[in-house]
Amino acid sequence: MKKARIKFNDRIQQVNVNDDNSIVADNGKILQEDEVIWLPPKHGAIIALGLNYADHASELAFKAPEEPLPFLKTANTVIGHKQAVCRPDNVDYMHYEAELVAVIGKTACKVKQRDAMDYVGGYTLCNDYAIRDYLENYYRPNLRVKCHDSLTPLGPYIIDRDDVDDPHDLELRTYVNGDVRQEGTTRDMIFKIPFLIEYLSAFMTLQPGDMISTGTPKGLSDVQPGDEVIIEVEQVGRLINYVVSDSAAGYTGGHR
């Protein structure tokens, strides 16, 4: 089952989503994908991972980390499917990052790896954009790299955990204007989801709706205003967004 948050006729609804991305509204009416505003499917904390794929670390000339490199994505960054991602004016390099997201389904505190998957409620997609101009240290990205408004598209929906065969054996791809720019597999994660849940829940209680964005493989490239960027995770779905410039968009915040 796939569940989403949408806005239709100025009203926010929790809805089910069919395999063709048509939507079952709360009154039973079937809505098409382009009839609605897609909202981020959850409101929880977003914990992202740096350098969690060995090939990505290698393409950046870094050693694979010996322990996870988590950081938080702030609420101002979060937008939904088919919304505009705003590239700041006067920056030289902004890139996408296709990521599988594990959504916490129940309160997790000091969970062991052997039990960790019981705490996953489902999966979604994240495009964890970064502004490379401001990056001084890959191990500790500063706020301007990851926390500009609109840089965290999420969605379109959350798919139930049991509808994904093995989250550690999925293909990921990024398309820019229809061309494949990034391609990898979750088999190459350095730290798998059970390890991350144990690691994080040892010092912070994870709540239902919190999200762990599990990192990206190699294949990054710059994107420009006018680009359509699609990230795709096998069995989970496709997340589409459009790059615009801050000045052209008159950006005043995403749909949350």
Describe this structure in words.
- The chain is mostly beta strands.
- It has two domains: 1-39, FAH (SH3 type barrels), CATH 2.30.30; 40-249, Fumarylacetoacetase-like, C-terminal domain (Fumarylacetoacetate hydrolase, domain 2, Alpha-Beta Complex).
- Helices cover 11% and strands 38% of the residues.
- The strands form three sheets. Strands 1, 2, 3, 4, 5, 6, 7, 8, 11, 12, 14 and 17 form a twelve-stranded mixed beta sheet that branches. Strands 9-19-18-15-16 form a five-stranded mixed beta sheet.
- Strand 18 and strand 19 (237-245) form a beta hairpin.
- It is globular, with a radius of gyration of 17 Å.
List the SSEs and their pairings.
Blueprint: E1 2-8, E2 11-17, E3 23-24, E4 30-31, E5 37-39, E6 46-50, H1 54-59, E7 69-73, E8 78-79, E9 84-87, E10 94-95, E11 98-104, H2 113-116, E12 120-127, E13 130-131, H3 143-146, E14 152-160, E15 171-176, E16 179-185, H4 193-201, E17 211-213, E18 228-233, E19 237-245, H5 246-249
Parallel strand pairs: 6-17, 8-14, 9-19
Antiparallel strand pairs: 1-2, 1-5, 1-14, 2-3, 3-4, 6-7, 10-13, 11-12, 11-17, 12-14, 15-16, 15-18, 18-19
Can you summarize this structure?
This protein has 256 residues and is mainly beta. The protein contains five helices and 19 strands.
